[in-house]
Amino acid sequence: MSSDLTKNPFAVQSPEHIAADDVISLFVEDFADFHQVLRTGHTFLHGARGSGKSMIFRYLEPDCQVIAKKRALGELEFFSFYIPIKETELRLTELLRLEKERHGSLALNEHLMTVSFAIKMLASLQRISAHADAAAAKSFAGFVGGDFMRLLRRGGWRGELPTIDADAPFDRVRQAATEVMEDLHAEVSQFIQRLSLGRNFTYEGALLGFLDFLKPFTLALRSLSFMPKAPTFLLIDDADNLSEEQTRILNTWISSRGVAELSLKVSTQLRYKTYRTVSGQQIEMPHDFAEVEISNVYTSDRDRYAKRVHDIVLRRLQKADIAAKPDEFFPPDREQEHEIEAIAAKLKEAFPTEGRGNRARDDAYRYARPDFIKGLGGTRKASSTYSYAGFSQLVHVSSGVVRYFLEPAALMWGEQSAANDGRPVSSIAPHIQNKIVRSEANRFLTSEFERISQDETRGADHRDKAWKLRNLIDSLGSLFQHILVSDDAERRVFSVAFSNGPDDEVRAVFNLGAEYNYFHKSSIGKKEGGGRTDLYILSRRIAPVFNLDPSSFAGYKFITNDTARMMIMEPKRFTNSLRSGTLGDVIDPPQGNLFGEV
User: What is the pTM assigned to this prediction?
Assistant: First the structure.
């Protein structure tokens, strides 16, 4: 990537479309907490959209591993096939109707999934075509005419294989096998769609499944001369897009044995529909699978996430021939920082007589920025002028999701490029950073929020879920802003847990927010001891909307179920009670420190 102004170093591409060389130059390898992904065994990788799941999968593909590990294809420690699950591919309308009526949908669903996965695996082999010589092509052709055809015949296929010349290159052999699988896909898809005509049709085509086709197909591929004699991974990306019955089928595959040879690595966007199999049994961790949640890794270790973003941004700057370090490229508002430093100095000076913490620097760290924001909203009435510029603040605002840093950064680059009028971009002006961050925060609560209104149905009381969630977010934003400018000992609060409840309706609204990334869901010990309770952390992407300090939110509040219901159903009453101080004990004092002192 050159420093040409037409090239935006922060542009976000779909990982599956990034060339292997670019993946290696951009990807920051950090598998210390993701080690299960590299091991044999089925693994779920959970994370919000943009948290890096697909990039991890792309890095695990063989063309990237050959470069990263500096090994020949046959010497790799594992071989991965990438299988993305697009939202509409496997969810034909008539098939969904069949699932409800239970007329043969299970067999057709598994057949459709098996065929679709095989097509994706054959497409994934295109990644290694540059490493496949004539001998590899001959070996592959022998597989297609032999084991591949035998498995298809066993499944009931009676078609003919396209002609493959004796000296056909590797990719032509791959295309021939793909054509067969695409014909099978078209056959079952057309049958399913014909059912909409209202007549009784009988499916007489092939029926393929995991145990009788996909698994032996994969293991036969592994035995080819050019393939590594190593574990095989199927990287199943965005499995939330499967229907519930398809999810049960996938779980049934996961419950099968033989993980030393073939492991399923399944990514989700935290909306996986069920962990039950087609027989109703539950797959369980660690017996059937391992589990990694990226959001938990990064929200529980701020320093680790900040370092990861730093390394990602540094690589992108270097690839664009920009010498600046991340904190130089994204400088803070110097005037604002000088004022905060002056407040911090006064807090340290007053510590011997007025200090609250264990050390003077703790008080300076904990109160200087909130006191500055409080001053803006006081006699100056200018809290909206607080600047969110600076690499550190941008990292905090991204709320543990790398994409939420890169996408605003790409917009900042575009605006700075236009302002430079042809001059190279060496840094992003603080006012541009702040403008984009505030604009993106507002968009997150307006146009992006509209999709929830469109997706979610209205409840029995005719108050739709999106309305309730927006009330909750606004109420929590008001609560956290109120605490930030108060005289409380802990003002950096961005999370709530329940001292009682929540009831089903309240929990559903919080979980809806977690599904759309307005909350991160975790857990903490119950206030009264004995067990754990849900903890909901508001996305720091929203901090600019409520003029909150996005850095290092450590404290949390216990709230009652009644308080949460007031936030959701009567937000004006809640904010009025908050201002008048009449909420009483329905909001408890801060309960210690969520992440520990910094």
Answer: 0.84
